[in-house]
């Protein structure tokens, strides 16, 4: 190494003095250029063009560390999204033998389920109190109104829970039934002139369910299903609840054009998954309801709890809730809920100045995720082990026992409605 002379040092000092300002200016210019022309994306997207319409397919976001997507819950009233299940000595407001509207497959106690611990839990939000369901308050708030549940079998599950809760003070009279497995039904509570109905529509939008001839569903994402939309003139409030049917193979249409499919390897269509399609179904539906100014509750995705094959003995054999932080909201459950929340927030912004229209997400995904003990399991059928324990037995780890955790969905819904109407 040589020794630096004073001349070399002076030259070096002059170079640094002149170079650094230019370097800073260059870096600043690059940063501004990068931010302006290439803003940091929140999700990775690819876009498929179809007749000048675009279907955007998002990759799932990284799992939330605490299983929660922050949004605008809690600005008005109780933020019931975050909390824990706590022991409740009072138990349910009704029993399965006294309520005559429970679907047979969800009547767990009457089918011989031996453990009753799943009945003695209550959801306790972290920062507020969630009141027990008051059937008289619900009937008073919906006096002279028609409340319709629209969706799949989880929508029916929540409806039947509501009927049992209301039946503790007023008798529901079945005034209409139609369709296989009673998929379309209507009840009337004469005490308050309240009508409650259920419409089978597992996609919300126009769709054709798979069959032996066509082994995939066909969904038309630009129009709602007329099976329920034709009755909107007589409906005052709609509860939407869908999800699990979007997991099945399907081809998706927008107008007359095919925009893609899900799980259709034998078809010459683009595989697009179902997350964004799920969001599009809600977008189309909420636009119609917003335009008609019909109050809307969106019950978010209800996770399943299969811990193995659907017919294995331990498919959903847990007998108590998960502890707080024992189970995170992630993967498909996370993304399905995210799509619903985003669509609700967007729709609310479009009518934020309206005082005559109400819309809210009934955000139950996390609290449902924490209840692996609340499903019928093998007791979807009466006394499955009456002739001895079997190695394989069908299990229902999707729907909820009645009474059971899904009663909480209606407690939260009533709390939302009190903020709307009182």
Automatic annotation (TrEMBL):
Top-level taxon of the source organism: Eukaryota
Annotated keywords: Membrane, Signal-anchor, Transmembrane, Transmembrane helix
Membrane topology: Single-pass membrane protein
Transmembrane segments: 20-38
Keyword Transmembrane: yes
Gene Ontology cellular-component terms listed: Golgi apparatus; membrane
Keyword DNA-binding (UniProt): no
Location of this chain's protein in the cell: Membrane
Stored Pfam families: PC-Esterase (PF13839), PMR5N (PF14416)
Signal sequence segment: none
Domain Trichome birefringence-like N-terminal: 77-129
Protein name: Trichome birefringence-like N-terminal domain-containing protein
Family from the record: Belongs to the PC-esterase family. TBL subfamily.
Annotated ranges, domain Trichome birefringence-like C-terminal: 130-415
UniProt-listed PANTHER family: PROTEIN TRICHOME BIREFRINGENCE-LIKE 9-RELATED, XYLOGLUCAN O-ACETYLTRANSFERASE 1
InterPro entries: TBL, TBL_C, TBL_N
């Amino acid at each position: 190494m040589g020794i630096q002379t004073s001349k070399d040092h002076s030259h070096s000092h002059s170079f640094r003095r002149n170079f650094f300002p230019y370097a800073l200016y260059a870096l600043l210019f690059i940063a501004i250029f990068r931010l302006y022309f290439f803003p940091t994306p929140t999700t990775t997207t690819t876009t498929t063009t179809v007749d000048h319409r675009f279907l955007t397919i998002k990759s799932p976001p990284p799992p939330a560390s605490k299983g929660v997507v922050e949004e605008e819950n809690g600005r008005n009233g109780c933020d019931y999204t975050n909390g824990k299940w706590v022991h409740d000595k009072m138990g349910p407001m009704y029993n399965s033998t006294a309520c005559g509207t429970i679907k047979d497959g969800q009547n767990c106690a009457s089918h011989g389920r031996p453990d009753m611990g799943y009945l003695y839990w209550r959801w306790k939000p972290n920062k507020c109190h969630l009141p027990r369901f008051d059937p008289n308050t619900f009937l008073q708030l919906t006096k002279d109104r028609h409340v319709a549940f629209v969706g799949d079998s989880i929508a029916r599950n929540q409806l039947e829970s509501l009927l049992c809760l209301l039946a503790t003070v007023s008798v529901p009279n079945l005034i209409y039934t139609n369709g296989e497995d009673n998929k379309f039904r209507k009840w009337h509570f004469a005490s308050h002139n309240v009508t409650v109905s259920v419409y089978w529509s597992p996609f919300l939008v126009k769709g054709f369910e798979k069959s032996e001839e066509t082994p995939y569903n066909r969904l038309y994402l630009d129009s709602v299903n007329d099976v329920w939309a034709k009755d909107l003139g007589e409906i005052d409030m709609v509860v939407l609840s869908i999800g699990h049917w979007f997991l099945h193979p399907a081809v998706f249409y927008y107008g007359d054009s095919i925009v893609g499919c899900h799980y259709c390897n034998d078809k010459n269509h683009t595989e697009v998954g179902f997350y964004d399609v799920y969001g599009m179904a809600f977008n189309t539906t909420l636009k119609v309801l917003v335009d008609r100014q019909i109050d809307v509750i969106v019950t978010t995705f209800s996770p399943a709890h299969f811990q193995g094959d659907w017919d294995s003995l331990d498919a959903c054999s847990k007998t108590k809730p998960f502890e707080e932080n024992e189970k995170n909201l992630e993967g498909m459950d996370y993304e399905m809920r995210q799509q619903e929340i985003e669509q609700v927030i967007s729709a609310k912004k479009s009518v934020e100045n309206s005082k005559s229209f109400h819309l809210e997400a009934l955000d139950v995904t996390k609290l449902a995720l924490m209840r692996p003990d609340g499903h019928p399991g093998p007791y979807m059928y009466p006394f499955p082990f009456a002739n001895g324990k079997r190695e394989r037995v069908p299990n229902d780890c999707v729907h909820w026992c009645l009474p059971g955790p899904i009663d909480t969905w209606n407690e939260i819904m009533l709390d939302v409605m009190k903020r709307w109407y009182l």
